[in-house]
Amino acid sequence: MPKQFLTALTSRQAIALVNLLLAFLMIQGVWDISGKALQMEAFQHHMEEILEGLGTIMVAFGVALEERENLMRMLGIYPAGRTPQQTAADQYCHDYGLFLLLVGLFVEVSVYIIRMPDIDTVDFDPALIVAGAVLSVLGGLLLARLSWLLSTMPENPVVEAGH
Q1: Which pTM was predicted?
Q2: Residue 120 pLDDT
């Protein structure tokens, strides 16, 4: 693949756009769940499927974000293309990727607790569905915040871990 294409694909703007698309997906999934909340018994399996999918997407994308710096090196964009702005983007992606990975794992755990054999969680199923939905909203907010940080980054940013 040409280096220009790879650079565009891994750019701050491309990541911000994908983040916003995934944030929209998180909100749409939670909207679907909330629309069926009063009919939990009829739609619980559907809600679990949505949450499981959202959790998996967050985990997978979180890992990809977290490893942006290594990916840039593997694609041959670094070290020549490394700038203070790219270094800051790498740090943001690493931090938010880790947050997204953890949030996604907890969404998946909320579904797995419901589905575990030999554990009767029927009384807690609605609470676990709500917990997964709230965490999915949190994942969407993390993606939106990362998009904002990447889009508004100055030329020579100073980044501290955890921002």
Answers
A1: 0.87
A2: 76
